[in-house]
Amino acid sequence: MKPVYQIRNLAVIKDGRPLISDIEFELSAGELVVILGPNGAGKSTLLKALAGIEPVSAGEILLGGESIAKIGRREMARQVAMVEPMLDLPFGYSVEQVVMMGRAPHMDAWFEGAEDWAQVDAALAVMDCQALRKRDYRNLSSGEKQRVLVASALAQQPCVLLLDESAAFLDVRHQMELFEAIKRLTTQGYLIVAVTHDWNLAAAWASRIILLKNGRVAAAGSPAELSNEALLLEVFGVPLEVMVVEGRPPVVLQPGASRG
Questions:
Q1: Digit-coded pLDDT (tens) for 186-218
Q2: Which CATH class is domain 5-253?
Q3: Fewest C-beta atoms under 10 Å: which of 56, 67, 91, 95?
Q4: What is the pTM of this model?
């Protein structure tokens, strides 16, 4: 099966400083890939490059075998949807209106059609947001807002969903609900690429982790393969303890966490 993304010798340079460089990997349909690394490692830059938002300085990104530099903005939006950190809206849009915004790449007129509403209904159902559809988006909880934003992205009918720290402001329950929902999407053939700071969240749900350090790929592999104390010390610069419990994803403990 041809990879969805092929990233070749990718670099992004700003003001003479490389934000990411020598990035190479492939991403396939049905994967939940999590990008991890310390602050300033280039995680969000890489995600924006995959979305076609961040200009590439060197190398190339192929989407479905075609360079994204040759794919128009509208067509790119039909294939790739990006959910950025918590969105605040200044006006009183209802949830269904926010989700309808995701239909913009497919709409040829100012007014929604039957297909647009069908896709909104489907996206609300996938993210379990039907009961929220008439609510004012501004009055939702953080967890509800994130589910609505993912629903809006799904209404675009993309094959790729990019999530930038979408779980950052959520409590444990809502983090689990969000990742359960996006994990289910991989069974439908979606490629999900998520940025997070939470190693244990990534280990619990990711099929693959890409570790960045100083703008380069330090390591890539399954959570079990990368749950290595020497590797984590090298990447994050602090001693971390890996706890392995049979039948469960490895858990990484922060310094001092094991003390009574």
A1: 999 999 999 998 899 999 999 999 999 999 999
A2: alpha beta
A3: 91
A4: 0.90
What pLDDT digit, counting tens, does each position of 246-260 carry?
777 888 887 765 554
Q: How far apart are the first and last CA of the chain?
A: 50
Q: What is the pLDDT of residues 41-75, one digit of tens each?
A: 999 999 999 999 999 999 999 999 999 999 999 99
- The CA-atom distances, in angstroms, between 212 and each of 25, 45, 231 are 12, 11, 12
**Residue 134 in this model has a pLDDT that exceeds 70:** yes
Closest CA to 102 of 126, 72, 78, 76: 78
Cβ contact 98:152 at 8 Å: yes
Domain residue ranges in the chain: 5-253
